[in-house]
Amino acid sequence: MTTPILSARDVRKSYGRGANKFDALKGVSLDIREGESIAIIGKSGSGKSTLMHVLALLDQPTSGTVELAGHDTRSLTGTALNRTRNKTFGFVFQQFFLTANASVLENVMLPLKIAGVGRSERKRRALAALEQLELADKAKNKAVNLSGGQKQRSVIARALVNTPRVIFADEPTGNLDTATGAVVEDILFDLNREHGITLIIVTHDEELAARCDRRVHIRDGLIVDVVEAATATPATATAEERAA
Ligand SMILES: Nc1ncnc2c1ncn2[C@@H]1O[C@H](COP(=O)(O)OP(=O)(O)O)[C@@H](O)[C@H]1O
Ligand SMILES: [Mg+2]
After folding, report:
1. CB burial class (10 A; 0-12, 13-18, 19+) of residue 227?
2. Is 44 close to ligand 1, i.e. is its CB under 6 Å away?
């Protein structure tokens, strides 16, 4: 089997300490195949966002490991960690995280700036990403003046401008009306299918989850079920997943 793009091994995450200690993840193991789409689903407070943050190297587990393409990420710190995250991952969050008073173009160029790409190349690539999302005409608009769907498409443009291997989406359609949400979903699945970008989606939405190759159900900080879509490639669940 090819090396998973991401691999969580017995990941535990606790918040607080002493009497206030809360175990948000209680031993999660999961292999994510490069190019797959995977939904992480579960009730509010079950640990979905915590798992996503740990997988995305935005937060460290209290114990356990996360491997990126077979490499233990514990040795990644500081600049190297930021660079790896910026180069490998794109983020699409419900709370758009656009800089409101900056232009759409500037928002989309940001990951390239962090990556040290020169100004004219930044602009060229950001405009190409905006073009892809049919937002080129909004490049000079301030982010604050966009509609919800346009904001989310800008976020996707920003997520893909660095040609990431993985896109993390936390409730990507949560703030959008049904029609706009469907457009955003289609864009994400197109990126997955046409560019082989691994898609990791946290969602409450069963229909969105059903479009993914695999659905990982999480409850009280544990994976309780992994469901493979009928059309997906054969299951390669880990022993822990099968036992769960
Ligand atoms: N920074 C934090 N400090 C303390 N508790 C937290 C923190 N972040 C999350 N939690 C708790 O951990 C649990 C899981 O949170 P989260 O991963 O955000 O759940 P979900 O995304 O499934 O709604 C929740 O009970 C939440 O209150
Ligand atoms: Mg959450």
Report:
1. middle
2. yes
